[in-house]
């Protein structure tokens, strides 16, 4: 009896100490639209489990702008800025110095995640992040319109161009004045590097920098791929696509304004949602192949990382474990459409009922092509900047494909110097 009373007192003291130590943690979460429901769900679980408070911060939507902001925040070593955040697949190495080493804390999670995604986050033998969701480029199409015109989903870019031209003309003649054949991400930013990689590599033009670190972009196939994309602008794709990121492209497609769209998996759940004008009319497939080439999807994805300056790393890791568990990943799929990074969820009946197309994506993920981030080491941000600027110059008619790949070759060689570091 006495022992029991003592342990109760100890528990009460511990509880009050915990309350006294309650901290406020900050997590990246965009509290808008469906995202808000996801943020609230996480907040509820975290606060109930730990007694701490969770606040959200929103970052710019573009990957490269976001990276710039994180680099500034981390340079100031501000422990109050952010505790848990998402790092793009291509930046885990770049942010190495500023993120917590999670090797011990997350060791038991490894077997549950896709091995490729897990490996991406190991820097110098240490686990620096946990995969939040998988991404790879895919082609969306309007099933109803292909049927109306007796066309099949396109296997090559050439076919895509032909079908898009034909159906765009047909729909415009039928009174849909603003209808476009294709939308993609043509703004000068990280997303354009992904689109450019898909065009160039699918034409057999390489990956800009090969796995040994050699710059390979100055070749005729790469030039041809960029010229092909430039030929779409103002014909089957709106001039405005030169300002599109993912959400702008999705807005046009989801409102019924385009036949084809290049985008990431999240767009599927949203396009098929009850409030979507194209609900039930959308198909998704691997991206088309280039002439004499193959279908190539850029590998994307985001990773949960803890700031090395967090004032309460233990609570931040507890939060990371909540957002990384199977229940949270299902919630994220349901609300924001992002594809799970946990293997078992691809066989989970609830997941398959909610997102049957994930079976298709699983193969696309397995073969997705990484951007040249690993081999270019600390220089990747500059490398990508050079790639999307060169691509943008071709899309906007300022440069021919041939000129652009020659210029990009020397630019990348200059960034490389003696070697990537
Ligand atoms: C997606 C991808 C990410 C990529 C970005 C480009 O968010 O997951 O890897 O950098 O798109 O816009």
From TrEMBL:
Secretion signal, residue range per the UniProt entry: 1-22
Database matches in Pfam families: SBP_bac_1 (PF01547)
Protein keywords: Signal, Transport
SUPFAM superfamilies found in the cross-reference section: Periplasmic binding protein-like II
Gene3D superfamilies (alphabetical): Periplasmic binding protein-like II (3.40.190.10)
Protein's cellular compartments: Periplasm
InterPro entries in the record: Bact_solute-bd_prot1, SBP
Spans through the membrane: none
Domain of life: Bacteria
Gene Ontology annotations for the cellular component aspect, listed alphabetically: periplasmic space
Recorded family membership: Belongs to the bacterial solute-binding protein 1 family.
Protein name in the entry: ABC transporter substrate-binding protein
């Amino acid at each position: 009896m006495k022992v029991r009373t003592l342990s109760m007192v100890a528990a009460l003291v511990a509880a009050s100490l915990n309350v006294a130590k309650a901290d406020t943690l900050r997590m990246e979460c965009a509290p808008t639209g469906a995202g808000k429901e996801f943020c609230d769900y996480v907040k509820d679980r975290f606060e109930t489990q730990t007694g701490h408070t969770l606040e959200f911060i929103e970052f710019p939507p573009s990957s490269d702008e976001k990276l710039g902001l994180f680099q500034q925040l981390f340079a100031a070593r501000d422990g109050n800025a952010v505790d848990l955040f998402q790092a793009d697949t291509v930046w885990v190495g770049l942010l190495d110095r500023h993120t917590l080493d999670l090797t011990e804390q997350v060791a038991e999670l490894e077997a549950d995640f896709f091995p490729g995604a897990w490996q991406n986050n190991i820097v110098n033998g240490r686990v620096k992040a946990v995969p939040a969701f998988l991404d790879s480029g895919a082609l969306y199409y309007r099933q109803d319109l292909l049927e109306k015109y007796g066309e099949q989903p396109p296997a090559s870019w050439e076919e895509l161009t032909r079908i898009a031209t034909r159906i765009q003309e047909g729909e415009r003649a039928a009174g849909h004045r603003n209808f476009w054949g294709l939308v993609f991400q043509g703004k000068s930013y990280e997303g354009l590097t992904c689109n450019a990689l898909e065009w160039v590599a699918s034409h057999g033009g390489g990956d800009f920098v090969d796995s040994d670190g050699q710059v390979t972009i100055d070749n005729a196939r790469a030039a041809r791929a960029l010229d092909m994309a430039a030929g779409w602008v103002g014909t089957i794709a709106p001039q405005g696509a030169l300002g599109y990121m993912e959400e702008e492209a999705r807005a046009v497609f989801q409102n019924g304004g385009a036949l084809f769209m290049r985008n990431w998996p999240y767009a599927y759940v949203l396009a098929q949602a009850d409030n979507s004008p194209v609900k039930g009319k959308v198909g998704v497939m691997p991206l088309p192949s280039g002439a004499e080439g193959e279908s190539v999807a850029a590998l994307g994805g985001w990773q949960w990382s803890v700031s090395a300056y967090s004032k309460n790393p233990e609570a931040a890791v507890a939060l990371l474990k909540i957002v990384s568990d199977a229940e949270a990943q299902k919630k994220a799929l349901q609300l924001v459409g992002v594809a799970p990074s946990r293997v078992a969820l691809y066989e989970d009946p609830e997941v398959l009922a909610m997102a049957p197309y994930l079976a298709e994506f699983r193969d696309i993920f397995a073969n997705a092509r990484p951007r040249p981030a690993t081999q270019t080491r600390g220089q990747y941000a500059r490398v990508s900047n050079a790639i999307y600027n060169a691509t943008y110059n071709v899309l906007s008619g300022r440069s021919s494909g041939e000129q652009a790949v020659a210029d990009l070759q020397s630019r990348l060689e200059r960034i490389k110097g003696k070697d990537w570091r």
